Amino acid sequence: MGQSWKVWPVCGAHDRGLRAVLDQKTAVWRCTGGGTHTVAPVGALP
Ligand SMILES: [Zn+2]
User: Fold this and answer.
1) For ion ligand 1, residues whose CB falls within 5 Å
2) Whole domain around residue 10: which residue ranges?
3) Is residue 17 within 8 Å of residue 27, measured between CB atoms?
4) Residue 36's pLDDT is what?
5) Is residue 33 classed as helix, strand or coil in its secondary structure?
6) Number of domains into which the chain is organized
7) Cα 4 to ligand 1 centroid, rounded to whole Å
8) How many angstroms separate the alpha carbon of residue 1 from the centre of ligand 1?
9) How far apart are the CA of 46 and the centre of ligand 1, in A?
10) Fewest beta carbons less than 10 Å away: which of 5, 11, 28, 37?
């Protein structure tokens, strides 16, 4: 009780949680559904 985790972004296409990874020195949110795809740069999601 009392935990305050930040809301984890989810891929709208696959309804999967995203993971933050480095892609060419830029942190991006990546989805592992549908063969893995980059969703958005970290910080660009609302
Ligand atoms: Zn996805």
Assistant:
1) 11, 13-14, 31, 33
2) 1-46
3) no
4) 93
5) helix
6) 1
7) 25
8) 30
9) 17
10) 5
